[in-house]
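Progress report, Aim 2. The chain analyzed during this reporting quarter is listed below.
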Amino acid sequence: MTNDMTNTMTDTMSSGEQVHQLASALREVERGLILVVTGAGVSVASGIPTFRGSDPGAVWKRDVTELGTVDYFCRDPVGSWQWYLDRFDGLLAARPNPAHRALVAIEKWQQARGGRFLLVTQNIDTLHEEAGSSELVKVHGTADRARCSQEGCSLAAPSGSISRARIDLQPFRDHPSRETLPKCPRCGSLLRQHVLWFDEYYDGHRDYQWNRVQAELASMQLALCVGTSFSVGVTELVLRAAMVRAVPVFSVDPAAAGGPRHYGLEKLTAKAEELLPAVCAELGASPLYSPPEER
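Predicted structure tokens for the chain:
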């Protein structure tokens, strides 16, 4: 890893050299913790647009900083629910791509050799769990659940929520209005999305597992960031912890050249859905990988 205070660019490396570099770094972790952080870029190949990316469908172009807030929900719950239904229908229809499946393979490979693995995703889609990730933290919530907006309700923060599949959304879809807004089955108050809004905090709900993420940083031996713009609190936390402990950090992103400058950050300018399966192949951890039987 580089010893100065700038990141190392690997855009001059061949794809094979980048694969070998990341695979070698993963092997060196042995029984320690591999911490993976994924952002919207990991789901682009599944047809889900990024937030801050340059792709034409980037959600940020529609001013999500205003729409994705408690304040907007309180002012216009009908508009809030309409905007999220438009977004979430696409999210829940998507399917895992090779990058999601490769991360599952790396998780199993690491665990099979006695190591530890944790995947922290900024995404609210369900693709990681559909692919098979088990050691998973969704710090920004999830699109397949909702929760009550009334403080004190058992289906509200800090620990309650309800499956989206249990909510009858059809009346609201047919006639969007305050009268047809989804209501809490326990107390009758308005339901809201089970996501971290921009005017909320990571510790606002136990499902975000913020305390677990903070605790795991003490044993992190390698950080792998996939498809993230490094523009949210969790990536800042990981980069800071990595710098303090001199932990190597890899960023997999075809547009990595525009990312942050940070001590020891290795930027792999490649598509995750291409690079990560190739890394699995070098590790002997294909997406169909299963641990060898005990003798």
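The longest helix spans residues 77-93. The chain has ten helices and ten strands. These observations will guide the mutagenesis work planned for the next reporting period.
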